[in-house]
Each structure stands twice: as C-alpha cells, then as structure tokens.
Amino acid sequence: MRFAAALVLALSGVEGLAGCATSSAPAPRSFECRWAEAPIAIDGRLDEWAPSIVFDVPWEGRAAATSTRAQLLWDREFLYFAGAMEDAEIKALPREHDGRLWDNDVFELFFRPGADKYYEFQVDAAGKILDMQLPGKGGGYDQCKADGDFHVEAVVRRRPGGWDVEGRIPWRDFARTGGRPEPGAAWGVNLSRYDYTGEAFELSSAAPLAQPSFHRVEEYATLRFLPSERHARLRERHPPLTTSRVIGSPDPPAPYRVRKIRPGLELKKPIAVLAIPGSDDLLLLDQSRSWGQDGRLLRVRGETTEVLRTFKGDAYDLCFDARGFLYVGWNGDKKTRVSRFKFWDPASETTVIEWDSGGHNGGALAFDAAGLLYVTSGDGTSDSDTNVVGQRLDNLLGKVLRIDVRELPYKVPPDNPFVDRPGARPETWAYGLRNPWRMSIDAQGRVWVGNNGQDLWEQVFRVSKGANYGWSATEGSHPFYPARAGADPIAKPAFEHSHAESRSLTGGRVYRGALDELRGKYVYGDYSTGKIWAEGREIADTALQITYFGEDAAGEMIVVDHAGGLYHFERTPVLERPEFPRKLSETGLFRDGKPVPSLVPYTVNAPLWSDGAEKERFLAVPAGGKIEFGTSRGWAFDNGATLVKTFKRDGRLLETRFLTRQDGEWAGYTYVWNAAQTDAELLGAEGLDRDGWHFPSRAECMVCHSRAANYVLGASAAQLRELDVLEGLGFFKANWGAQAVDDLKADARAKGLEGKALDAHVKKHQGGGTSSLLPKASYPALADPYDATKPLEARARAYLASNCAHCHVEAGGGNAAIDLEHTTELAKTRTLDVAPLHPVFDLQGARIIAPGKPESSTLLERLKRRGPGQMPPLATSRVDAKAVELLEAWIRGLR
C-alpha cells in the first residue's frame, strides 16, 4: 500500500498499517525543550543549534537508513524547531500551503499539549508548510486543514548530501489548547520524517511508536519544557521569602470589622439600599457598569433580585414617605431630578423637582418627622465650581433644599430661611456645598450631610437652617477662593478629614443597631480608602469601596460596597497578635544592615523626585506568592508581598520604608536609621521632621499609594527595568490569554472581519490563561527624565507620570480635571491651553500648560514653588532644578 493512501486512512482514524507491529512496544522516551536565551534567526543554517534527537524506525526495532537529527527550543513567544537530514535524492514536487506534502521529502512535528486535541505541522524539502489541529484521534484531512489560522515560519536550506529545516511556531497557534506551557510542563511529542528514493520511501520517528501511525498519541514521547539557565540561577540567588516578621500592625486593631450579608446575592455596582417597610426585602440602586451608565432599581428578596426599573443615568438615593410613596434621586441627560412612584407602579412616576446639573449632582433624599423632603444638590460641574454657583442663592445648585411634597409638584414651607430674601430660591435650607451626595436625618431631627471635597479636605456637615458652608470660597474650614465668599458667615464642618486619610467621603447616618458602643453616633466612611469613622474616630479599616450606609428592617446598619456586596458591622475578635518588629534588624528582611537574598533589587526608569535623595528598591513575595502582571499602572500583589525602599542623602542612610500587603490591604511603615548607621527604629504613625528631612506619617504614605494608583507605583511594566528577573523567579501571573485574544483580533481584521464575525473568530480560536512568563519579551518603557539623549517630550511626560499621575488621574484625589498618565494622549490630558481653576500666581495669560510660553504655565510654576501651591504637595521641600529646566524647554517647544 502506498504511504499516501495509508496517511489519508490514518487521518481518518485508522490506527496504522496492518502487519507492521513488533512483538513488544518500544520503551518510553523523553526529550528536553531548552530555553532559547536569545532570539533565533530563522535562516535554515542551524548555526544556533545542536540537534540531538535521533530518529529511528521503532515499530521495526531498527535504525533509520538515512540519518535525521532534530532539536526543539522555546521562549516566551515561540516554539522553535530544527531538523538536519541526510538525503541523497531530494524530492520536492510543487505543492501549495496545506497541500499533500507527504508525497515529498518532509519533516513533521506532532504536539499533544495534554488536551484531547493535538497538532500536526509539516515542512517539505521545498519549504512548503502544512499546519492543522486534529480533534482526538485522527480526523478528516480536508476538514482539519481548513480549521484554524496558523503562523508557522520555516526556512529550508539544501546542502550536499541533505537538507536542513529551521522554523518557529508562535504560542498563539496553540491558544485553543491552553497556549504556551509553563516551565517544567510536559507535552506529548512525535517528530517524524519521510525520505523518498524514487517511488519508495522510509518512515522514521523520534517517538516510540509500536505501529507506523503518527496519530497514536498515547505512544508519543514526552517533551519537557526546561526553564532558562539564567532563570534557574536567579532562583538560587533569590530563594522564596520565609523569614519576614512584618506581620500584623504595630497599632491596635480597629474595634470593628465588616461581615458580608446575603453572600449569594449577585450585584454589579450597588449604590444605595433601603429596607421595604413591613418585610425583610430591600430596595437597591445598582449600576449596570460604572458611573454615568444606566442605573437599576432592584427588589431584593433573600439572595435573589428583581429589576423594577432602569434609569438612563445614575440613580443616587431613595426613600419612602409616611404614605408609602417611593422617591428616587437620579441624574440623566445632565438633569438631576427627584421622581416619585406609587409603590410599585412604574406607570405612576412623577417628577417632583429637577435642575440642570453636569456633575457633582447631589441627589440625596431624606424626610424629617414633619414629612418635609430634604434634597441635596451639588455645584453642577466636574471641578472647582467652574460656574461659580456655590455662594449664590439665585439657583438650586450647591444646596440642601427643603420642600413639601404632600401636594405635587411641591410647595415651599413658609418657614424656610430664604423665603423672604430677594432673588433667593425659597427652596433653599442651606448652601455652599460642593457635592453633598449623602444625607440622613436622625431621630433628633439633625440633618447630616457628607460632602466630597476638592483638593485637600473632605467634610461632614451637621446642617443648620440658613447656614452657608463656604464652597467655593472655602474647602471645609480652609480657604479655597476666598474672594468668592457670599454675604452670610461661613459655618464650619462637624468633622473634617485631610486627603492623607480620606479621598472621597461617603456620608452615613446615626447608628441604631445592636452594638451598644456605637449606638447614637454618626457613622460615615470613605469610598477610596475604605476607612470608617464614628464622629471622627476611626472604627474600621476595610477594603470596601463604600457608597452608602443604610439600615435593614431591624435597624442594623448596612454598608454598601460598590464592588458588589452588602455588609454589617461586627466586633473585631480579640486574637493573639505577633509582636510587630520595632527595629529593622528584627523584620527578617535585613541582616547586618543588608537586605536578605529573598529581597529582589529593582530599579525604575523614571524615579520620583525625593529632594535629591538616592534610593535603593527591593521587593519580595512569600513562597508561592504571585504578582498580577499588567501594562497599566502598578501591579496587584498577593498577600504577604513587601516592597522596600531605602533613602540615602550625602552618603548617609535616612530611612527604610516598607509597603506591605496583608488581608487584602496595603499599609506603609517607616524605619529611621540611627546615627551609627547600624540599625533603624520603627517610626510612630504621626511621622517626623528632622534635619531638613520629612519622614512621612502612615496616612501620608497612602496618599500617593492610593487605590486610584493601584497602591504600588514603581512596580509597573513601564517603570521596572528588571521584568525578566521577576519573570525568571516565577513571580508573575500574566494574562497570556488576553495577549492571544489581541493577536486573534489582529488576524481577524487582517481578513476583513469586524463586528459579530470578528467576535465569532476570536471565540472559536481563543484560549490560553495565566502564565508566570510574560506575554511578550518587552514593553514600552518610560524614558529617564534626566537622560538628555532621550526625546524631550518622552522625558517630560515620564516626569509627569512618575511625579504627578498617581493623583492626577480619574478618582486620584488631586485636581483630576487633568490626566497626566503617560498612556493618555497629550491632547487629551486637559492641560494644553486650558485656563486654570486654581490661583494663577499673577501669571499673565495663565494656562495649565501654555504652549510656547512656560512663563504663563501654572504647571511649571507649581513645580518651581515650595510652600502653598507647590506640586507635588507632599514628600518634597526642595525644587527639582533639572526637572524645571526640562519642563521649561518642553513647554517652550510646544505649538
């Protein structure tokens, strides 16, 4: 029987040629796939190879008549192959891609990644390629060759007495069966060759096949993927961290923690919760995706939900009146409104009150004991009271409103404080608020409002009749635009928090639950930090993105987490806590003043300015710990990870800072080096100023290392120079599947596919998952701002990214109207030729960045200043003269 016919039968599921089996099966075989330490040039010359896999005829128990040797190598992106074949008579008939190459002299590779599918690749002596995936055992040739896209590259080089082949297969071609293997993984493999002499041919193989069928996958050899030799040496040099004693906290635990309720409840982005009177059911406002997306009103029974209504925008708050009507405060189409419903009749919706608002919408609702409705409104803009409405009384913005809704649309209560003031909106109860998006009224009739601050302060107000709370003349009790002050005196906040501990305050309510120590106290929290206070005292430190404090039917407080959960308070259990190390030498991370080998040194491309201090950086993850690799912002680390930074100035050690992650939370600690430079002492939570150096408080550490910046700053793909080191140590958990999907999309678009056709193509071929190896060998890096050989704009943008962007991003806690991330196009940073919203320092024609005019650019002016208005606002008391020179030159060259 001719082999061509036999192969077609084998592809169709026939096991092999009858009468060719030996009496005993060949012994198992195993081969090594070594790491390619450098990319291999695919030119057919085999000058980077040492082929050592020998082919024979195992089913006949003999050596092959003509010699074949092969080798396999791999790296992050490719599986490489090479074959060196003796051949006195080369047969290379014209064939098309995926044609019947087995009629020629051909080199074949079969791979079984361990799934129920396997792959066949062929390269004939003319350099033509066949590539396909086969389902299970066998499969029709015509069907399989048309199923899937492959990207095999191969070059054939003929030489006297034989021919060589060299090629590579990208790992994305294996996506459907998991993609690239991990170091140490094993696949099934068969390498084979067909050598023609005239019409006769010899089959030879590297796998221990008992019959000449290359589809007997259970008889394949084992291929083990070895790690890089360099990576192996790195693992010897930096063993897993097992000695750390940086566990727990030097401070006593907060008295309370949160416990999830209704854990089976599936929510998207919950905003507010309300108990339905007379039942254990809840009403819940939920966002379908994120801010500015469609809101939903849900009825929650046990752990199931029913959608009652959707809103074309954000729904913020809800409440019942004494008659059972439901009121919802929401914003859509740049209008904030209060809608009333007869519960539950969606057709009964009536608009009670509305006003124009394009940001800072307020929308909080509460009834007092007399049945009057209080409604909050913000300043209607996205930043700094752009329309200067905060101190005006002739509109509904920036206020607490008080109306009587017993008759619709509403009446103004005659005892409202501004009823008789000419030009004032009579609905006004109090004014001067920026974004009062949470409000409650307690049993004593006190009106509590949580107000989001602007640059530095967050506030809670206990609202009084007719009071002016200062925005935007003040930010809480601190000057902002003093010249904007209105006619009425400015009242102080009840509680106020700096951005060192609070970044986006969520107002709460007076606690009425079962915890005696909290009962009667006003409890509130923070969206960005997860901290919770009771009348100014911190009572819990959570990982929640807190959007609301509600109550269940029993009066127990419900904390709403925007990430998708509802929580109750419980007392923190009294547990034996390990003694937190008070000296650096006691941490288990330093020995004789030097970091232990488990600490991995790293450097960054664009360092943060720290008054000219030198810095050494290290990181460690616990045994088995991982770093979730990403290409934007800082990486996510497993619990137990610790990042270390030591500061030196004038040759002397100043401090060593730790950033450590435990129980899902990051915390920062500082050790101050002693005069003898032999050890360092743990600094108290309050920080220290000494000898012209500021040692930050623990709260200050988390201002920059914020949730918006993903906590970790220097450890990112754009910053860290030692990506291959961390990869070699096996620290990464990289989403290889996402990279494969990107490649698949590019393939589909190259074929002209879009929309549903593109999605179908990706769905059919996608696979992969997480890997300790990077998806690619290199990633775009920030330029060194101080390297004059680098492009000017790249240096300037890198400086802003490393020194400013951790605050100047969305929800970053700074004046986030500008976006200084390095991935943001310059034209979209909202800086070019944009008028500042803050003081302009007497600059003529001031702009944030005035292209061509550094002397009119407030961004540069802030960098040049130290004191009020300086940037960055923390951690520096000296001007970075080189950075000033850099940004001045960059701005001057902008057009």
Topology:
Blueprint: H1 3-11, E1 30-35, E2 53-54, E3 56-57, E4 62-63, E5 68-74, E6 78-86, E7 106-112, E8 117-124, E9 129-135, H2 141-145, E10 153-159, E11 162-170, E12 186-197, E13 200-205, E14 221-225, H3 229-237, E15 256-261, E16 269-275, E17 282-287, E18 295-301, E19 304-311, E20 314-320, E21 325-332, E22 335-342, E23 345-356, E24 365-367, E25 373-377, E26 399-403, E27 428-431, E28 438-441, E29 447-451, E30 457-463, E31 474-475, E32 478-479, E33 495-498, E34 505-510, E35 522-526, E36 531-534, E37 537-541, E38 546-551, E39 557-561, E40 565-571, E41 590-591, E42 594-595, E43 600-602, E44 614-620, E45 627-628, E46 636-637, E47 642-649, E48 652-662, E49 665-673, E50 680-682, E51 688-690, E52 693-695, H4 698-704, H5 723-728, E53 732-735, H6 736-750, H7 755-765, E54 770-771, H8 792-803, H9 858-864, H10 881-893
Parallel strand pairs: 1-5, 1-14, 45-53
Antiparallel strand pairs: 2-5, 3-4, 5-6, 6-11, 7-8, 7-12, 8-9, 10-11, 12-13, 12-14, 15-40, 16-17, 17-18, 18-19, 20-21, 21-22, 22-23, 24-25, 25-26, 26-27, 28-29, 29-30, 30-33, 31-32, 34-35, 35-36, 36-37, 38-39, 39-40, 41-42, 43-44, 44-47, 45-46, 47-48, 48-49, 49-50, 51-52, 53-54
Describe the structure.
With about 900 residues, the protein is mainly beta. The strands form 13 sheets. Strands 1, 2, 5, 6, 7, 8, 9, 10, 11, 12, 13 and 14 form a twelve-stranded mixed beta sheet that branches. Strands 43-44-47-48-49-50 form a six-stranded antiparallel beta sheet, covered by helices on one side. The chain has a four-stranded antiparallel beta sheet with strand order 15-40-39-38, with no helix packed on it. The chain is elongated.
